[in-house]
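Hey, can you fold this one?
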Amino acid sequence: MTRTRTRAAHDTAAADLGPHAAKPTARTAGMTEAARAVWSGGSPNAGGEPRIETGLWECTPGVFTAAREGYTEICTILSGRVTLEVEGEDPEEFGPGDVMVMPSGWTGVWRVHEPLRKHYTTILD
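Sure. Predicted structure:
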Protein backbone atom coordinates (compact mmCIF):
# COMPACT_ATOMS: atom_id res chain seq x y z
CA MET A 1 0.00 0.00 0.00
CA THR A 2 1.27 3.48 -0.85
CA ARG A 3 2.04 6.09 1.77
CA THR A 4 1.19 8.93 -0.59
CA ARG A 5 -1.45 11.13 0.98
CA THR A 6 -4.75 11.80 -0.79
CA ARG A 7 -5.27 15.49 -1.62
CA ALA A 8 -8.87 16.69 -1.63
CA ALA A 9 -11.27 19.62 -1.58
CA HIS A 10 -14.63 18.80 -0.01
CA ASP A 11 -17.84 20.79 -0.46
CA THR A 12 -16.31 22.70 -3.38
CA ALA A 13 -19.30 25.03 -3.60
CA ALA A 14 -18.56 26.42 -0.14
CA ALA A 15 -14.78 25.87 0.14
CA ASP A 16 -12.88 28.96 1.30
CA LEU A 17 -10.61 30.18 -1.49
CA GLY A 18 -9.13 33.03 0.52
CA PRO A 19 -9.48 36.75 -0.10
CA HIS A 20 -10.49 38.10 -3.48
CA ALA A 21 -8.06 40.35 -5.36
CA ALA A 22 -8.45 42.55 -8.43
CA LYS A 23 -8.56 40.58 -11.70
CA PRO A 24 -5.49 41.86 -13.62
CA THR A 25 -6.95 41.41 -17.12
CA ALA A 26 -10.45 42.69 -16.26
CA ARG A 27 -12.26 44.99 -18.66
CA THR A 28 -14.91 45.53 -15.96
CA ALA A 29 -14.01 47.84 -13.08
CA GLY A 30 -14.01 46.16 -9.69
CA MET A 31 -13.89 42.58 -10.98
CA THR A 32 -12.16 40.24 -8.52
CA GLU A 33 -10.93 36.64 -8.30
CA ALA A 34 -9.73 34.12 -5.74
CA ALA A 35 -8.11 30.69 -6.05
CA ARG A 36 -6.88 27.80 -3.97
CA ALA A 37 -4.57 25.09 -5.26
CA VAL A 38 -5.53 21.62 -4.07
CA TRP A 39 -2.46 19.82 -5.44
CA SER A 40 0.55 20.43 -7.66
CA GLY A 41 3.21 18.03 -8.83
CA GLY A 42 4.63 16.12 -11.72
CA SER A 43 8.14 16.49 -13.05
CA PRO A 44 9.17 20.16 -12.72
CA ASN A 45 9.77 22.17 -15.88
CA ALA A 46 13.09 23.90 -16.61
CA GLY A 47 12.04 26.80 -14.34
CA GLY A 48 11.35 24.44 -11.44
CA GLU A 49 7.56 24.87 -11.62
CA PRO A 50 5.39 21.80 -11.05
CA ARG A 51 4.06 20.45 -14.34
CA ILE A 52 0.47 19.96 -13.13
CA GLU A 53 -1.73 21.96 -10.75
CA THR A 54 -5.35 21.43 -9.82
CA GLY A 55 -7.56 23.60 -7.67
CA LEU A 56 -10.56 25.87 -7.33
CA TRP A 57 -11.04 29.38 -8.73
CA GLU A 58 -13.85 31.90 -8.67
CA CYS A 59 -14.54 35.40 -9.91
CA THR A 60 -17.19 38.08 -9.78
CA PRO A 61 -19.30 39.01 -12.84
CA GLY A 62 -17.70 41.04 -15.60
CA VAL A 63 -15.50 40.73 -18.65
CA PHE A 64 -11.81 39.81 -18.85
CA THR A 65 -9.28 38.66 -21.42
CA ALA A 66 -7.30 35.45 -21.06
CA ALA A 67 -4.45 33.64 -22.80
CA ARG A 68 -3.13 30.14 -22.22
CA GLU A 69 0.51 30.44 -23.23
CA GLY A 70 2.76 27.53 -22.31
CA TYR A 71 0.05 25.52 -20.61
CA THR A 72 -3.28 23.81 -21.22
CA GLU A 73 -6.19 24.32 -18.83
CA ILE A 74 -9.07 21.90 -18.26
CA CYS A 75 -12.05 23.25 -16.30
CA THR A 76 -15.33 22.01 -14.91
CA ILE A 77 -17.80 24.76 -14.06
CA LEU A 78 -19.16 24.24 -10.54
CA SER A 79 -21.49 27.25 -10.35
CA GLY A 80 -22.33 30.34 -12.36
CA ARG A 81 -22.38 30.98 -16.10
CA VAL A 82 -19.80 32.28 -18.53
CA THR A 83 -19.63 32.88 -22.28
CA LEU A 84 -16.25 32.37 -23.95
CA GLU A 85 -15.50 34.33 -27.09
CA VAL A 86 -12.69 33.26 -29.40
CA GLU A 87 -11.94 35.20 -32.57
CA GLY A 88 -13.42 33.47 -35.62
CA GLU A 89 -15.70 31.17 -33.57
CA ASP A 90 -19.26 31.44 -32.30
CA PRO A 91 -19.49 32.42 -28.60
CA GLU A 92 -20.05 29.40 -26.36
CA GLU A 93 -21.83 29.45 -22.99
CA PHE A 94 -20.83 27.19 -20.10
CA GLY A 95 -22.61 26.45 -16.83
CA PRO A 96 -22.58 23.97 -13.95
CA GLY A 97 -21.35 20.53 -14.97
CA ASP A 98 -19.84 21.71 -18.26
CA VAL A 99 -16.22 20.89 -19.09
CA MET A 100 -13.97 23.05 -21.26
CA VAL A 101 -10.42 22.64 -22.50
CA MET A 102 -8.29 25.63 -23.43
CA PRO A 103 -5.18 24.23 -25.16
CA SER A 104 -1.86 26.04 -25.00
CA GLY A 105 -2.05 29.01 -27.38
CA TRP A 106 -5.73 29.68 -26.64
CA THR A 107 -6.76 33.34 -26.33
CA GLY A 108 -10.19 34.77 -25.77
CA VAL A 109 -12.63 36.82 -23.75
CA TRP A 110 -14.58 35.59 -20.74
CA ARG A 111 -18.00 37.19 -20.16
CA VAL A 112 -18.96 36.14 -16.64
CA HIS A 113 -22.73 36.54 -16.20
CA GLU A 114 -22.96 35.66 -12.49
CA PRO A 115 -20.44 34.69 -9.81
CA LEU A 116 -18.43 31.84 -11.33
CA ARG A 117 -16.63 28.97 -9.62
CA LYS A 118 -14.66 26.28 -11.41
CA HIS A 119 -12.40 23.35 -10.76
CA TYR A 120 -9.27 23.66 -12.92
CA THR A 121 -6.27 21.57 -13.88
CA THR A 122 -3.32 23.19 -15.64
CA ILE A 123 -0.63 21.22 -17.45
CA LEU A 124 2.59 22.98 -18.49
CA ASP A 125 3.90 22.31 -22.00
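The two ends are 32 Å apart (CA to CA). Let me know if you want another pass with a different chain boundary.
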